[in-house]
Design brief:
The protein is mainly β. Helix content is about 0%, strand content about 55%. The protein is globular, with a radius of gyration of 14 Å.
């Protein structure tokens, strides 16, 4: 079972940047597809970006061109570089690790890190 710890959240002005990190431990990092989700107050959790085991990224339409997901398997870490931040990006951001085995899907979550975009 993998354990995930996010860091890098905080308060930033509109147009600013933040980089989130998610450090994994307790399992073989490279077997997991990784993702970043977010949940704003009163809203459902939504996927922001994901990256396959092979390093192929996918993004929600709302963040395309502004956010970049990457992974460093040697450091057991996944990153989310967030540029041109908007107030609507304000949310708790969660790291996710996912893998499939024998037809079952396994999801693991970090504790979340708050991102607030405000002037």
């Amino acid at each position: 079972q993998v354990q995930l710890v996010e860091s890098g959240g905080g308060l930033v002005q509109p147009g600013g940047s933040l980089r989130l990190s998610c450090a994994a431990s307790g399992s073989i990092f490279s077997i997991y597809a990784m993702g970043w989700y977010r949940q704003a107050p009163g809203k459902q959790r939504e996927v922001v970006a994901a990256i396959t085991r092979g390093g192929s990224p996918n993004y929600a339409d709302s963040v395309k061109g502004r956010f970049t997901i990457s992974r460093d398997n040697a450091k057991n870490t996944v990153y989310l570089q967030m540029n041109s931040l908007k107030p609507e990006d304000t949310a708790v951001y969660y790291c996710n690790a996912r893998y499939y085995e024998l037809g079952s899907r396994y999801d693991y979550w970090g504790q979340g890190t708050q991102v607030t975009v405000s002037s």
